[in-house]
Design a protein that fits this description.
Length: 200
């Protein structure tokens, strides 16, 4: 439970026929070193098959240190981390203060239900970059190191008690290109049946 006894709201599921005219990039972030938060930048460049140019998590195989220790040959399904600005808004209503890049994301979005997207959704960011959604971010204790209670706030439960993972989603880069705040986000859903997002 978050500060003040409130939990984050469960977001609505995506309507397959919906147009995403309002989906937009609000901030971009990267960091050359392994840390928790990432500094906001004027622009980032995505590299096909690798991730964010100049970011510590760039690579075709796993770059998150805990995963490298387990098996450094695993494919990197976490090349790009996205968080919705709406999540920051919800956290603010729960008493936290979180802004773009502070949860380690590369791309902050608005106007798109990230958690309702099925696995394999393609997102076009700006003019040319295309990423494929691979799954949910598996949050860790570093969230509590950043702000006490943040980890639990990002793990609310739905009506049947199932834990919901709300620390963002992960993707791989299919087509490279520059991404900057204000860029529109195009959405292409995969063929049905859709697979819900799982932790990666």
């Amino acid at each position: 439970m978050a500060r003040g006894g409130r939990r984050l709201r469960q977001t609505d599921r995506v309507n397959n026929g919906r147009r995403y005219a309002d989906a937009v990039v609000t901030a971009v972030s990267r960091d050359e070193v392994h840390g928790f938060s990432k500094p906001v930048r004027e622009q980032i460049r995505l590299v096909a098959g690798l991730g964010v140019e100049g970011d510590a998590h760039l690579g075709s195989t796993v770059q998150h240190l805990s995963r490298v220790k387990r098996d450094p040959t695993q494919p990197n399904l976490r090349q790009v981390h996205l968080v919705a600005a709406e999540t920051h808004d919800d956290l603010g209503r729960c008493g936290f203060t979180v802004s773009a890049g502070q949860m380690g994301e590369n791309v902050t979005t608005r106007g798109l239900d990230l958690f309702g997207l099925p696995t394999g959704t393609l997102l076009q960011l700006g003019d040319s970059a295309v990423i494929e959604v691979t799954g949910l971010r598996n949050p860790c204790f570093q969230l509590d190191d950043f702000q006490d209670g943040l980890l639990k706030a990002l793990l609310p439960r739905d009506d049947d008690g199932t834990v919901l993972f709300r620390a963002g989603i992960m993707a791989v880069v299919l087509e490279g290109g520059g991404v900057r705040p204000g860029d529109p986000i195009g959405v292409t859903l995969p063929a049905r049946p859709h697979r819900p997002l799982e932790r990666v």
